[in-house]
Amino acid sequence: MSESVRVVWDDALTAYDFGPGHPLAPVRVELTMALARELGVLDRTEVVGCTPATDDELALVHKRDYIEAVKRVSVDGRPDLAAGLGTSDNPAFAGVHEASALIAGASLAAARSVWEGTAEHAVNVAGGLHHAMANTASGFCVYNDPAVAIAWLLAQGASKIAYVDVDVHHGDGVQALFYDDPRVLTISLHESPRTLFPGTGWPEETGADGSAVNVALPAGCGDEGWLRAFGAIVPPLLREFEPQILVTQHGCDSHALDPLAHLMLSLDGQRTAYEALHRLAHETSGGRWIATGGGGYELVQVVPRAWTHLIAEVSGHPIDPSTPTGPAWQALVRERMGEAPPLTMTDGRTPQVSDLSGGYDPADAVDRAIMATRNAVFPSHGLDPLP
């Protein structure tokens, strides 16, 4: 399906490092790229470098005084709590501006490639920092790279962009930055705000004429329920909206092993979602697709395999789930992490995907979440909320 694919990468992207013990450890992207190399995934893509986003590019979504505050913190790592830096979630560190601007620059490089037509798809697994707000860091995120990329595309003349966020946490920063802009359709599937940070993402948060879409799934939701919700919400909205470009955020913290959340997806369920988004990119946005990483805190068993599957899917050459992870990568995991690596690219699941064609069950918590979202936004898009 894919004609030309760019993977944006620079080893300096691992400098986004909040220190020992912080859940967002840069080793997760290091291990991802190592696994993708070992399995030959990168051989089917063009790997390109990136430069830091400029202040003007960051200012497409962030306040100038916030950027200056981050720069001051960056000099010596002295906290600035007003800017959200120096908390347990967002520790201050020397070099924070440069590291954060490089991640934003990587997503901008992906956006430029797709907008200018030098690539059909592009991916930045180090990106997806979707919680950062206009004037404050939040939820491990300093600069909101997906929002910077979207704002840059709008400035180039794009008139309809869809953003789909499958991280377990609500994509609150991206939603907030485009909440009143009908040119941007934001769709977030996440664990219910009743049980998880950031406490937003209710179906009633609908933006400008239904431009914000939130699917708040119950804790414990697994592959089948999650994929049922995805199928009931995302394809009909993307088909109706017909975006020029699809931007996606692929936090893999919806996995059952993730230590910070309470959904129960498998690697195989997540891979199924990547396949669906790839098909939808070709069906609804002419194949123009920008994918980013996001959350994911099981650093060995989940993140590297999930995002290697993502890169492979974006490349148009998905990996057979039974593929071994490879001896060199397994040795790297033992050396770097001191733990046993996963041996294959699957959790051994085959998710059964169901839809609403047979109706919905009001006694089922997932179906209630689906219908709450459809009732909230489908009429604004001229769609019937009933199955």
TrEMBL record:
Keyword annotations: Acetoin catabolism
Cell membrane in keyword set: no
Name of one Pfam family that matches: Hist_deacetyl
Occurrences of domain Histone deacetylase (ranges): 22-313
Family annotation (CDD domains): HDAC_AcuC_like (cd09994)
Biological pathway: Ketone degradation; acetoin degradation
Family: Belongs to the histone deacetylase family.
PANTHER family: HISTONE DEACETYLASE HDAC1, HISTONE DEACETYLASE HDAC1-RELATED
Name listed for the protein in its UniProt record: Acetoin utilization protein AcuC
Species: Nonomuraea recticatena
